[in-house]
Amino acid sequence: MKNSLLAAVQAALSGDWDAAHHIAQDSSAPEAHWLHAVLHKIEGDEWNSRYWYQRSQRRYEDFDDTSAELQAIARQLEAQHE
User: Fold this and answer.
1) pTM of this structure
2) How many angstroms separate the Cα of 65 from the Cα of each of 4, 26, 38, 60?
3) d(C-alpha 54, C-alpha 20), whole Å
4) pLDDT tens readout for residues 28-51
5) Angular region, 11: left φ>0, alpha ψ -120 to 50, beta rest
6) What pLDDT score does 1 carry?
């Protein structure tokens, strides 16, 4: 599952919002909720984004740069593989 979430992060970083969203919405992992939140932030759907941030126990305001936030998600997922 973590590999698919890493693939979703890479898809999001490369601009493939739909692919990333499909993977994120099919997972119940906290990182998937965080990714889902960022994807809706990118989309401009603040209400939905804030909902997913709440589920991930993170805050909408923690990152101004969504690319940096996606990279933070990737780092967290990679650290779990070690």
Assistant:
1) 0.93
2) 23, 25, 10, 11
3) 19
4) 999 999 999 999 999 999 999 999
5) alpha
6) 55
